[in-house]
Design a protein that fits this description.
261 residues; 6-stranded mixed β-sheet; 5-stranded mixed β-sheet; 7 helices; 31% helix
Amino acid sequence: MTPAHPAYAQLRQVTDIAAVMLEDNPGMMTLDGTNTWILRAPGREECVVIDPGDADEEHLLRVASVGPVALTLITHRHRDHTGGIDRFVELTGSPVRAVSPEFRRRTDAGLPDGELIEEVGLAIRVLRTPGHTLDSTSFVIEGEGSVLTGDTILGRGTTVLDSTDGDLGDYLASLRSLIDLGTGRTVLPGHGPDLPDLQTVAQQYLDHREQRLDQVRAALDALGPGATARTVVEHVYSDVDESLWPVAEQSVRVQLDYLRR
């Protein structure tokens, strides 16, 4: 039988080109774990890997064993996507391209927005989608049309914007860029299951963010313009389990930065 999500330690084929190896690192921020994506053109042995994952030896060995890795691409800087880079390069010899020079290996090439990466029979379009982090990047598989969204869009739930370099204005613009790609594109996320239509999900994300912004604006009207993120969380997220409030507070802090500019 074809494995279904979540499928640890198994290569799960999702589209004709894209397969996923789910790392066994579940958590509040990683959902079921980190998705390492393996892209291979029909009839080709070599592949391109997206996000090797954290420093999990068994996971890295499994990914390295799927075939010669011609290139590794990074969606963003978080450790659950990048912690295993050096070991993965040791195992595969693959060059690694990333927005941040910190994560590049065996190449100086970054990921300029709009670049078409043509490698081992694949055509992968770079789409910069900052917001979750400053370096967040999505990849469009040309021809097939599926999109690797990293943590910009998840397989379930909503994305938390990093309070250090996340930016809500950037994130809203990135969601609109994903919507503009059109209908019928499969979402291949950094966490959670794949989804059938990117435009629908991105629009839902955008609507949700705008609704939350309206709620935060109303909270500031009620509490005063100098209200703290924690006070706003208690006001807006009263229907959410308190164990999730620290994560909500991080999101509210980003929203307040956006509204107070």
